[in-house]
Design a protein that fits this description.
The protein contains one helix and 27 strands. With 327 residues, the chain is mainly β. 45% of the residues are buried.
Length: 327
Amino acid sequence: MLALPFAAEAQGMAVYMAADGADANSGASPGTAVASLERALQVAIRQAGAGGTEILVAPGTYRGQRNVLRLKTEPPPIAIRAVDSTQRPIFDGETNQGTWLRVLAQTPMRLPLTIEGLDVRRYSTALSIEAPFEAGVGQQLASAVKVLSNRFEGIGSLQGPPSTAALRFVGISESIVKGNSFLRVRNAGDCSLLHPIYMAHGSNRNRIEGNSFDDNCGVAIKLRDASNENQIVDNEFRRQTLPAVFQDWYCDATKRKDCERKDECPSWSNRFAGNRLDGKPVTPVALDIRHGERPSNQCELPAVRERVLMQSPATSTRATSRGSQPR
């Protein structure tokens, strides 16, 4: 587990990983590759300059790695990507427990992290990126996270508490999730809480584009609590267990007693366009918009109150709300 601030000292560099590497190595070349992502991040943190660092992952299977990165200060750019785009490295959690990579920002900050071209499988959660949400603060920050062309397979819990997400963003804004595959994201028990993509608590203006979702048991994409102006476009959904592929929900403390936060609000002006379900255009029937448009007085109401824009803002149709249910 890392708990180190980033330092800006030198120019951009590369750190090399290999399944047959060793964490005693420097990671400075393919011949001195490290074995674990935790060690690679440690080297990147210590040596990254303003130009940032690439962590280049060689083909192979990396077993049982679980990594937590705690950030005290804003990092320079770091990219974790396959060294060979034609051969995905495999990170195999083996037991469907824990999280492959959890990034925790101690304060609202930019997080210019790129994850590209990897295969992550058999974890309870693949990726969780979390920043504290403060009303009016988190909404102004551009996190700049990019999750590109990865494959997430077999994510979910086989026993114990159910998983809630394959990819989780909390307080993360102006980021991109593009060209990824989410395959068989399932819990052995309750699947209603599990989502391949879950964005919550002030995750604004993100773009979810060109991803494929196949054989998943929960609602594929969920937005929660003041997560506004996100673009969900040109995604493909196949063989989904539940009829809805998108859910917008918040825990209304005026109606429920089990809300962890008492200040949650609806999300507004999220665009959902060009998406397809089993080869056909997604219609409002496949959108699950929880609660109506009369939140408590603590919530700011935008001038334009569409919850979900089905096409462009100029030609939108409003998705209707459904009854409140716990999720």
